[in-house]
């Protein structure tokens, strides 16, 4: 964090330099927000790697994996983590052939996505199937991580995404909290609307019950 402050704010910051953000200029504030937005938003990467060629295995097997990570450094780290668990291949004995970030086309219509995942909790290892409505796959994955962190206290590195798919057919949707939005005549009514009074006519405290519309 101090290295980030040193690079974006002042050459040599003191301990009191980055305590109050209100003392920064608008350009410094925008750089701070851009830094945290770029590091807190997940991205979709495709990582291709293989073991190093040797005399025993001159043509090794090539492995391709899709990783959701904050940046390319984390994507490489996760790739070698899974390779060590599944193929017993360490980073020292392997090499990265290709790394590419997938940028999905932006849609203005919400779609249904399914996520198969496995995560580790205090009690053990659990498999889950989740469904989300989002504009893109990245938004669905971000919603999944936020939900797992809030409801199950699962951290990022304890979650393993097994498979993702887009549910193009409405019959494929299983979860009721997603199926309720599939009707063509779905509406979002305002159940109770409070009548706002003019602030000049109202004091600091009100001695009558507010009027609500039916």
Task: Give a short synopsis of this structure.
By secondary structure, the protein is of the alpha+beta class. The protein is built from five helices and six strands. 26% of the residues lie in helices and 25% in strands.
How would you characterize this protein structure?
It contains 5 helices and 6 strands; from the N terminus they run ααββαβββαβα. The protein is 26% helix and 25% strand. A 3-stranded antiparallel β-sheet has the order 2-1-3. A 3-stranded antiparallel β-sheet has the order 5-4-6, covered by helices on one side. The relative contact order is 0.10. The protein is of the alpha+beta class and 214 residues long. The longest helix has 15 residues, at 26-40.
Explain the layout of strands and helices:
Layout: H1 2-8, H2 26-40, E1 43-51, E2 63-69, H3 72-86, E3 94-102, E4 111-120, E5 125-134, H4 137-151, E6 159-166, H5 176-179
Antiparallel strand pairs: 1-2, 1-3, 4-5, 4-6
């Amino acid at each position: 964090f101090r290295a980030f402050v040193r690079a974006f704010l002042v050459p040599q910051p003191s301990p009191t330099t980055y305590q109050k953000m209100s003392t920064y200029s608008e350009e410094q504030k925008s750089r701070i927000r851009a830094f945290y937005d770029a590091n807190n938003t997940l991205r979709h990467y495709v990582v291709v790697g293989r073991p190093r060629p040797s005399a025993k295995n001159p043509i090794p097997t090539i492995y391709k994996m899709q990783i959701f990570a904050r940046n390319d450094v984390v994507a490489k780290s996760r790739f070698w983590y899974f390779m060590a668990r599944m193929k017993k291949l360490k980073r020292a004995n392997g090499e990265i052939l290709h790394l590419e970030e997938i940028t999905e086309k932006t849609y203005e219509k919400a779609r249904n996505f399914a996520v198969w995942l496995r995560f580790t909790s205090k009690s053990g290892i659990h498999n889950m199937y989740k469904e989300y409505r989002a504009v893109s796959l990245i938004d669905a994955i971000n919603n999944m991580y936020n939900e797992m962190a809030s409801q199950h206290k699962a951290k990022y590195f304890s979650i393993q995404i097994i498979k993702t798919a887009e549910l193009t057919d409405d019959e494929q949707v299983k979860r009721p909290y997603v199926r309720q939005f599939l009707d063509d005549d779905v509406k979002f009514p305002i159940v109770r609307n409070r009548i706002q009074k003019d602030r000049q006519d109202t004091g600091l405290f009100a001695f009558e019950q507010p009027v609500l519309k039916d």
